[in-house]
Amino acid sequence: MTIVSSKLLFSLYSFLLFIIIIVSQAQGQPNFLRNYCINNNGNYTANSTYQNNLNTLLSNLTSNTQINYGFYNFSYGQNTDKVNAIGLCRGDVKPDLCRSCLNDSRVLLTKLCPTQKEAISWYDNCMLRYSNRSIFGIMDTSFSYYKWNNRNVTDVAQFNQVLGNLMRKLNEIAASGDSRRKFATANATLNFETIYGLVQCTPDLSGQDCNDCLERAISETPSFFYNKIGGRVLKLSCNIRYEIYSFYGPTTVIDQDETSPPEEEKSKSSHTIATVVPTVVVVAAAGLLIFICICLRKRKAKINLQDIKEDENNDIEITASLLFNFETLRVATSNFSEDNKLGHGGFGVVYQGILAGGQVIAVKRLSTNSGQGDIEFKNEVLLVAKLQHRNLVRLLGFCLEGRERLLVYEYVPNKSLDYFIFDPINKERLDWERRYKIIGGIARGLLYLHQDSQLRIIHRDLKASNILLDEKLNPKISDFGIARLLLVDQTQVNTNKIVGTYGYMAPEYAMFGEFSVKSDVFSFGVLVLEIISGQKACCVLHGQSQEDLLSFAWRNWREGTITNIIDPSLSNGSRNEIMRCIHIALLCVQENLVERPIMATVVVMLSSYSIFLSVPLEPASIVGGRTRSLRVRDMQSEGESINHASISDPYPR
Asked: Domain Protein kinase spans what residues (predicted)?
């Protein structure tokens, strides 16, 4: 009996120990900084082929290679059940800690997102992402997470200047990295304080895409961390962080001879998961396959003149006057010289050029690495070539030669509106009379797009940087890369891909993907408030606090202190006109699109005092109503303590 009891007790003890281990693995993972369970791409059912493929892929993700630089991307499965996964560790994280972080991620992420085919998570040390769609080598900034330290800096202007220089330097270093790592850290001294910075991209991105992703993240820091001593931006394809204390270690060393795992390891891996194929150049034997994939991708992305001619919605007659020779544009821009660079957008660089006859032009050279660039190119050719209005930038032609895609516009010499209204010196050049004319010109340009042209076009990205000013400071709406064409009898369209600029998006578009002419009306209202106040939509500073422009304008309207909204440089402007424009702007940004006027009514309101203006309702607030349900952007405040403990809950962007 004693022997039997001992065996029984030992068996019971072993069973309990097994249960404890299983439970600890399932529940003992540390919490993520943030994770998203993405519903847009569908769900899977329990014990389905997709779930089995996902589990197989994730369980072998880090054990399939000896690569020690912290980047893993693999696929498993076929057709609709194929799973793609990316694991990325911070460049200073050692291999064993990297694998541990990713293993923790796979356990917790599949638990938190038990049915979604696409999900992403971030820890301090690593990021894990999987999807049923292609995610390799594609810059994706559709999801972002923001976190900051609540402590304020002492000298905001000087701090931001030093920080900006540091982050741009790190961007350049990281973007120049190879297919194994795109990561950089450094620090900069400010008086008696040191600022530490870190930037990183998934190394399967091209250098240009990495640069663009980091530039976008860096450009967002003034909006959210304007006067904060620390902050981070986490995106699907890149991330940045800065603090006034050292938060990273030495970057792990990459063996220059390390190009593939040992033969023994590759053989071992093939028994574990035979169809897993790396998609970056890490296994020499896969080089040919990768080359073929790249060629196929380029072939798929390539756009040619016949595509434009055969587009079912196209009624442009492609004539010689619209087509430019690449060599002509290369000579006109002095071989696309940096000295001729006018600006750099998400899809390419804009250069000033001079044709042989002396005509000054602006040439947008789309990035050859951007798949979206083809869509933007075709969109602008098909839409803008049909539009002729004094308040729209005129497309002179385009060029298609090999992989080169260029758009040629009329040259607008006075840069964009944001260059003036947000600059303390340049804004003095825009008195109220000029600003009033700019508001009216933008309104007439939008009216033409919505109603008076042969098409009905929704711009979808109306903002100060997309309003160019000619030599007489007349406004011209530009950048139709994400504009959408509506049929004559259409009033609203839905989309699963929400694009545009934070702060200008109408609530129904940002939350549900529903856009209409009223979406542009909302953006116009935000833009008018920016023109009048000289403040950006995302942040109005008053004393030591800040709030979004719509909340600020509404609060002062309600409290009868509307003069607080007006830019002090407009002291000599007509108060009646300014007040009326504020009133019209508040009508345009009402949360319910039914309450917003159409642009035809707005134009009449601006030009006639005989039109009665209704009382506006509370606008959609950046922090309030319109973003409470947003699922694509998150922000979080970070406490002052050195262990980064959060002191407030995240709320949607």
From this structure: 336-613
